[in-house]
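User: Assemble these into one structure.

Assistant: Restating your components, then the assembled model:
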Amino acid sequence: MISEKPNFLWPTNIDHAATKEFWEGLQRRQFLVKKCHRCGEIFFPPRSHCPHCLGNDLEWVELNGKGTLHSWTEVNIAGPEFDTPFLLGLVDLPQGIGRIVAKIVEAEAHQLKIGMPVKIIYADVHKDLSLYRITIDQ
Amino acid sequence: MKNRVAIIGHGAIKIGKYPDRAESELAMEVIRLALEDANISKEQIDGLFTTPDLLGNIGLQTNQLCEYMRITPKLMAEVCCGAIAGGLAIRHAMNEITLGRIHTAVCYGAERESSIGWFKDFGSETGSTMLEPVALQPYGSRGVIWAYALSARHYMHETGAQEEHFALAAVRNRSNAMDNPLAAFTAPITMEEVMKSRQLSSPLKLLDSAASLDGAAAVVVASEEFAQKVCDKPVYITGWGQYHDNSCFVPTDGCSKSLSSFVSTKQAAEEAFKTANITPDDVDVAEIYAPFSPHELMIPEDIGWFNKGGMITAIEKGDTEIGGKIPINTDGGLLSRGHPWAVTPFYETIAIVKQLRGEAGKNQVDGARIGLMHCEGGMLNNALVIILKTD
């Protein structure tokens, strides 16, 4: 079924200095997070300042995108840009950056179990925008 | 707390939809009701504090109301901090009274969520820009229901709770709302009806969820000295706690944070009990802020009335019903009273004041002397707890 809905929203910081590289990374199939030169903290979402030491001398590092499913929901109520239902997952990433939320794709609700291994994959939703998704890591 | 401050009057309208009435009109109505209840005149209003009116009068609503009501308060402020705003407006009044700058204040909120509200239209840009752009905006549905759903599923995973337990909390709230003239939803419901209601974000269904609606409410706050002159039964604010626990359901500071127990609620409650010099078991009646039914189970555990998972048997046994160990949301809670978000803490406060003054009608908790009001802003990472008491 081909949907007429975009199924995404334009992120408000796609052109911001602190985050532009992240969005470009998704187009290259890279999941980039920030590392602080001053204290070594690795953090996500990417922002202008380190949440640990508040420094702003930062570099980009790439994560391997492997994690475990912490919780999930089947969403039936969403903005008009989205087809429903869709699956949404909360994922623990092991590399020290906390949790991420993303659409779960290529999986059915009955297959999902808390604690199962999952991985980040990518979807080109527009010629200028790619997003990260999660799927079961077989 | 020294220099005690009391709530001496309250007024509110039935929560619902008021498409043909302005916020200022709703505000004047509830302020008049609150002044009449307190038995004071509008000339005695020293302070006027309100909740945000983000899409309406760009911060000028107190100015407008002063003109509409021909009053000249010494102090005014519009207090904005997510859905705890109503509680913080009361806090602001309390501080100014404690500092001796004013004797009385009216704290009010008026919202028309169904017409111009923040969450009225899931398609509006406003609903998504509150979310972190990289982590949440393009992926999640708008609003916050998905986050509460993720939390609910993890609570089920940890404790063995079933969706039926959440449904029981919704049924308890509805049963209480049936006797509350301010509640939006008063038709009886059964557990089966909750279970069969439309799924919104699994495991949450329509009847597990609070509806964003219009409402207006006001309370009159006064110094103890003033209160004792005009009021037979002042309700004193004796405890206070607030805590913000940085990130929330999507923690950015590590993977150890619980989705089903909240540091902010625990810390705010602990501080409130400490300042009031009481223990959780001293509380006779409580209002908690649970926009979805699973949090009717989690929050009482965090406040300290039950162990983790203890609410499962408590909700089955009726421990949180009127006559139980700790009656909770005796006026219907967010689920059945309805939820004009920033005004909700006023409705919760009024429910407690009525209980402590013995005005709760069929829902009266016998001999209630100490009440607790809990509210939160953000996504369960910014909590506020107030203890109220009659002498």
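Strands of chain A lie at 31-36, 42-43, 58-63, 66-75, 86-93, 98-104, 117-126, 129-136.
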